[in-house]
Amino acid sequence: MKHVSILLLDHVNIGSMENARLGLLEANTFQKLNGMEDYFKVELVGIRPEVNLYNGAFTIRADKTLDQVSNTDLIIIPPVQQDLASGIQDNEAFCPWIKEQYEKGTEIASLCLGAFILGNTGLLNGRKCVTHWKATGQFKRLFPDTQLLPDKLLTDDAGIYTGGGAFSSANLILYVIEKYLSREAAIYCSKIFQIDMGRNAQSEFIIFTGQKDHSDDQVKTVQEYVERNFPEKFSVEFLCEKFFLSRRTLERRFKYATGNTLLEYLQRVRVEAAKRNLEKTNKTVSEIMYDVGYSDSKSFREVFKKYSGLSPLEYKSKYGLN
């Protein structure tokens, strides 16, 4: 039997915590249906015996506190439901225990914004990881030594697993069930909870809003120009002349401030506009392609799939008007 410690964080996201707990317990149900014993012993482990949430509306009691767990096989870190800086600070006491357990051979899985708690331990330095796409900018600033893969749905690196968004973290739980127990158990759980096991990316869910949480005002001016004029045909050289910067300087400053090259930024702005049109209008893919500044259908399809994970037709079929 594998002992699993789900951390009862201060200000924990109850939904994600319960997704993990119920998923593992359902794997035990699979075992029983097949005449076998439970495989996972699942416990909520906290700093204190209980946590109050939503101004006392909910009280969750821990099965054990940290000092009562000397060894565990898997630690699951759910996300916090509050400001991330405060969430990291309020849950600081978990970090030494997580590191100590990992050094003993314990594996660790973070769900969604739980990656911020895990990142604070230093165990993600140099390792591949994911978190919710909306928090990637803040994660990169706080933990620059990690190999953040914002488009991926989950990662598996040296006994450390990370998963994307709060509800899509259920895919990480299925992955853990398959790795620890069996694929048959994971398929059973996916059917019970109606979760698509085939997903491996969060690209199609990303809403690109432009990375403007930086202090380079001239780069912001360039960004705003691109966002207003993306349907037009203009080159990097044109932007350099317009804003009185050399190409090398503009490319360097733009990449440093936004994390994208100028070309990547223009592509992402155009793809986001195309996605909105595919969702909200009855225009054809070709009409939308021209509206957002493309004239070559092959190039448009390739760029669209690069940033959304789907072809324009697949995206329209999935998210467009019926």
Automatic annotation (TrEMBL):
Which GO MF terms are attached to this record? DNA-binding transcription factor activity; sequence-specific DNA binding
Output the PROSITE patterns linked to this UniProt entry: HTH_ARAC_FAMILY_2
- Pfam families from the UniProt entry: DJ-1_PfpI (PF01965), HTH_18 (PF12833)
Print the keywords alphabetically. Answer: DNA-binding, Transcription, Transcription regulation
SMART domains membership: HTH_ARAC
Q: Where is the HTH araC/xylS-type domain?
A: 220-318
What's the name of the protein? AraC family transcriptional regulator with amidase-like domain
Organism of this sequence: Cecembia rubra
